[in-house]
Amino acid sequence: MPTDEVLLEVKDLHKYFGDLEVLKGISTEVRRGEVVAVVGLSGCGKSTFLRCINQLEVPTSGEIIFEGTNTLDGSIDITKLRERIGMVFQSFNLFPNMSVKKNIMLAPVKLKVMTEEEASVKAEELLKRVGLADKADEYPMKLSGGQQQRVAIARALAMNPDIMLFDEPTSALDPMMVGEVLNIIKELAESGMTMIVVTHEMGFAREVADRVMLFHNGVVVEDCTPEKFFNENDNPQVKEFLSHLI
Amino acid sequence: MAYLEETGVIKDIFAYYGDIGYDPEIPGYFSAHPEALAAIQVIDHYSPETEDSGDDQNFFEWLWSEIVKNFVEKDRYQLIIMGLQNTVFITIIGLALGLLIGIISAIIRSYHDMRNKFKILNAIVRVYITVIRGTPILVQLLIIYFIVFASSGLNSIVIAGIAFGINSGAYVAEIVRAGINAVPKGQLEAAESLGMTFNMAMVTVIMPQAVRNILPALCNEGISLLKETSIAGYIGIVDVTKAAMLIRSQTYSAFVPLIGVALIYLIIVLFLQYLVGKLEKRLNNAYR
Ligand SMILES: Nc1ncnc2c1ncn2[C@@H]1O[C@H](COP(=O)(O)OP(=O)(O)OP(=O)(O)O)[C@@H](O)[C@H]1O
Ligand SMILES: [Mg+2]
Fold first, then answer.
1. Which helix (DSSP H) or strand (DSSP E) does residue A194 occupy?
2. What is the interface pTM, i.e. ipTM, of the complex?
3. What is d(CA B132, CA B137) in angstroms, rounded to the nearest whole number?
4. With an 8 Å Cβ cutoff, are B195 and A96 in contact?
5. Ligand 2 midpoint to CA A46 (Å)
6. Which helix (H) or strand (E) segment is B189 a member of?
7. Of ligand 1's atoms, which has the minimum distance to the CA of residue A200?
8. Rounded Cα–Cα distance for residues B161 and B89 (Å)
9. pLDDT 10s digits, B158-217
């Protein structure tokens, strides 16, 4: 249920690693409430695209306009930008030296967005939402991969971001655990969260996304609704991509 | 020493080394004047001595008589105790200074590697680490004693502590840096993606994890340092090794003083290693 408000606008984004051009002019818009699935073969630049949005990678050129401000003009505070952009990684990246609850509370408390008490209430509420209310005091290493990823989602949500970036959130999981994580992401989408999801789960893209973007060698070669993408697409690159899937 | 006492020479020796109120009754008096004591031990060696060694001894009788001769007679064990104090003292100064230098160096290097900051400082640190790790510690000690602090008037034990600290700092720096590097890159990214600054992420996320990697290696560095201080004798310090050598030069027997001092090192090292082992177990059990 995307609105008309443009939340994120990317214009002619280029990214080089040394001499290697990984993004070759990406342009797109993401509306508030929209769910965008990003698909493509390994190495085509999907992760790099996501990481440019919150500047874990510094784009080489182009514009990224988030909530009306150009985030690449050098004058903005990148940490403030990142507070509004949640990110979930393939490898969870929970902090192993803190309990689950402390993982969720750390950023809001350290960044003085919430008091200790507010963050604690928020953490418990989020843990309930991802179905892990009973794991608050557990250490991450004690949890299964699926549980860890759900905590990672809760941790990103604790900062009340305006957009969530998911980089293959289920690729490191046992097949048994993929469903529980996708369900949380789907619920989040239904609650109106704007999100960009890099995924290899075509079922998920078809069912949850409002739009599917296909990357190929650093360019967007298709950007359309899932219906069009999966059913009636005569773009040879889409056919080629879909034929790579089992 | 009785001979020197009788003749009053001992007073002159202490006066020569800057203490005119010779009083052996003051606790710790001898160890407070290591240079004087060393001199006395050397001179003492030339003083008249009566010795009778039987010919039909078995090994244990021989060993016992050697122990008595080397450690008990003329209170020679005091020399060992004083040497041990100096060894421990040098080790502690060296370790404290080494930690300070090493941690600062490692932070400079990590900031450079991860954030491209401190370019010049990083270059200096790299030269320091290369030089220290590329030259023998004995040569470093001699340079620092005879060149750097040649006319400083500093106590030689303090100079040795500084020399060992400068040496140890290079190794500590590499240990700490390796510990920081061993924390997965995703940890910093996760912290930064939440809006935390680099410094905040280092303090709350990276360092607490790095410490777990670092602590056992750091303890082992301390143990190596303790053993390395055995070269302090080269700059006139009576450490425990030098003490054994002084006894040897007085008694003309090498076996008991040297094996004895080796055992002293071994016992201390084994004890410290036992503690490190316990620490490692505790660290491995954390968060699990
Ligand atoms: N830090 C980096 N330095 C150099 N090259 C990089 C770096 N990060 C990514 N690359 C290269 O950029 C290209 C795109 O990488 P990216 O991780 O964005 O691909 P991807 O589409 O996410 O692939 P995957 O599905 O395997 O995750 C790859 O060729 C990769 O080797
Ligand atoms: Mg990727």
1. strand A194-198
2. 0.94
3. 8
4. no
5. 6
6. helix B185-193
7. 25
8. 8
9. 999 999 999 999 999 999 999 999 999 999 999 999 999 999 999 999 999 999 889 999
